[in-house]
Write a structure and sequence with these properties.
Elements: H1 6-25, H2 34-40, E1 42-48, E2 56-57, E3 63-64, H3 66-78, E4 81-87, H4 92-97, E5 103-104, H5 112-115, E6 118-134, E7 149-153, H6 157-165, E8 171-175, H7 178-186, E9 192-196, H8 197-207, E10 211-227, H9 231-246, H10 249-258
Length: about 270
């Protein structure tokens, strides 16, 4: 029998003890199901409140907007109460992954990068993302961004899109949310911002014709987000979206908040 030196034996014993201790504390992976949510009687839904009209607050400072109405429709569909949990662009996925919410209905655009962290339902919403800036700014495409100050909401789809396309010499300024980026544009801190057409419309109401859409950054589709490896919950969310797309309920909410028809949504 091979005899280990005492110091090696102690080190091996300590390492084994540490691994065993960590294993005992590791949380057991457990997929959440529709039945689980129905059993507790409440669904906790994370949503933005700084992205009107998708996410905003009402006169009582309570979450409202298209996403809030979709979340309420989801709860009604499941036969449970809804707890609307305000999140921000940067913390919405961490809130989901740390079990602070069951799902996100938070204008989260489907991207390959995000799909590595969460699983998406079929899309329930859509938005056109544009570069929006001063009329006097000569910006027609990505090549014209060199030397230009561009504002984006940190960790947003427009952040990743502008970052990927901007040539060297572009100054990208990241803000906590769309409202902050919007104020930066209107106060002259930046020359243009990446934003949805709905945010651009909000600016136009305040600033008249001082700004304009420069070019389309991307057409994005938003979906309900869940933690990965939850097939039953994914099926439930897909069924909810499919049913309420077919019966026109999602379109009614979209028209209510965006004054236009819900765009055609891909099934996958």
């Amino acid at each position: 029998m091979i005899q280990l030196p005492r110091r090696h034996l102690l080190a091996a014993t300590a390492a084994f003890t540490l691994v065993a201790s960590l294993a005992s504390w590791a949380p057991a992976a457990q997929a959440q199901t529709v039945a689980d949510i129905k059993g507790k009687g409440t669904i906790n839904v994370g949503l933005l409140v700084d992205f009107p009209p998708y996410g905003t607050v009402d006169t009582s400072n309570q979450p409202d907007g298209y996403d809030a109405d979709v979340a309420r429709l989801l709860a009604k569909d499941l036969g449970v109460k809804v707890n609307l949990v305000p999140v921000t662009g940067p913390n919405r996925i961490p809130f989901l992954l740390t079990n602070k919410v069951d799902v996100l209905v938070a204008s989260l655009a489907i991207t390959p990068e995000r799909a590595k962290q969460v699983q998406f339902s079929r899309p329930y919403s859509a938005a056109t993302i544009v570069l929006y800036g001063a009329k006097k700014a000569n910006i027609k495409g990505a090549a014209d961004l060199k030397g230009v100050r561009i504002g984006v909401a940190r960790a947003s789809t427009q952040d990743t899109t502008v970052t990927a396309m901007a040539p060297e010499g572009t100054e990208i300024r990241r803000f906590d949310d769309d409202a902050s980026a919007m104020q930066a544009l209107m106060s002259g801190q930046v020359d243009a911002i990446g934003c949805s057409t709905t945010v651009a419309a909000q600016i136009a109401k305040r600033a008249g014709d001082a700004f304009e859409n420069k070019f389309v950054l991307r057409q994005q589709f938003m979906a309900v987000a869940m933690r990965q490896n939850q097939p039953d919950l994914l099926k439930g969310m897909n069924d909810f979206v499919a049913r309420n797309t077919a019966n026109g309920e999602l379109n009614k909410l979209y028209v209510k908040w965006l004054q236009t028809e819900l765009p055609a949504l891909p099934a996958n």
